[in-house]
Design goal:
Blueprint: E1 10-14, H1 19-30, E2 34-38, H2 42-56, E3 61-63, H3 71-85, E4 90-93, H4 109-137, E5 140-145, H5 158-178, E6 183-190, H6 199-202, H7 205-214, H8 223-234, E7 245-248
Parallel strand pairs: 1-2, 1-4, 2-3, 4-5, 5-6, 6-7
Helix pairs in contact: 1-8, 3-4, 4-5
């Protein structure tokens, strides 16, 4: 059996109707996992689930819409998954928001709170809902999709960076707390990835040229390249890894 085989595993992925979350869901299903597609929009989720099931040739994906800003909807996401498949082996906290672009002096209190709520508090909620059954089974992998913004400063998306730095510490704290029950908690910190979420950063040719020039690999990333890291962290290949942040950025953060 491959160390990366996920046959029999159940994975819940938030924000999986597009971009990085969609790629993670598909690649986990390819490795044998049953996946739960979740975002605010049911139709978009159904399209992804249909794509996965059609390509694989069996029902590996179900849809449970949920807004990460709603504790009740996240609890329903967990409840429906448990009633359908009886377990959750992996949860990927991928959904996030970044509604403000500008200096810290210009962000309103309400928008600042929204960033922190959606990017930190929602992860705290969902992990606390999922972790008890993992701890009871003495097995589980919790993956938080953070960002290299969590280890770098920014003059224009500072609140987002602050929230992503908090996610890194959340993983470390929970890794210590859950470790005795064999539940692992890790982060993935992507660099710039070609997704709609980050389109404002890569869609301008001049800006993209500058970004590519600063990267040792000379390009931005693709969603499947983040999915590979998520499959790894969910699999038997990563059973001795916890509390860590895997940076997937084409070398940007080591190039100065």
């Amino acid at each position: 059996m491959s160390l990366f085989d996920l046959t029999g595993k159940v994975a819940v992925i938030t924000g999986s109707s597009r971009g990085i979350g969609r790629a993670i869901a598909y690649q986990m299903a390819v490795q044998g996992a049953k996946v739960v597609i979740s975002s605010r929009k049911q139709q978009a989720c159904e399209e992804v689930a249909r794509m996965i099931n059609d390509k694989i040739g069996e029902k590996r994906a179900i849809v449970v819409p949920a807004s990460i800003s709603s504790k009740e909807e996240l609890q329903n996401l967990v409840n429906v998954t448990m009633s359908t498949w009886g377990r959750i082996d992996t949860v990927v906290c991928n959904a996030a928001s970044n509604p403000y672009y500008g200096p810290a002096s210009g962000i309103s209190d309400d928008v600042f709170r929204k960033v922190l709520d959606n990017n930190i508090l929602s992860n705290h909620w969902l992990i606390n809902m999922v972790a008890p059954q993992m701890r009871a089974r003495k097995d589980g992998s919790i993956i938080i999709v953070s960002s290299i913004g969590g280890i770098r400063g920014s003059a224009v998306i500072g609140a987002y960076h602050i929230s992503k730095a908090a996610d890194l510490q959340m993983a470390r704290n929970l890794a210590v707390e859950y470790g005795p029950d064999n539940v692992r908690v890790n982060c993935i910190a992507p660099g710039l990835i070609r997704t709609d979420f980050a389109r404002a950063l890569w869609d301008d040719p001049d800006n993209l040229k500058q970004i590519n020039g600063a990267a040792p690999l000379g390009r931005i990333g693709e969603a499947d390249e983040i999915a590979g890291a998520a499959v790894f962290l969910a699999s038997a290949a990563a059973t001795f890894i916890t509390g860590q942040t895997i940076v997937v950025d084409g070398g940007v953060t080591i190039a100065g």
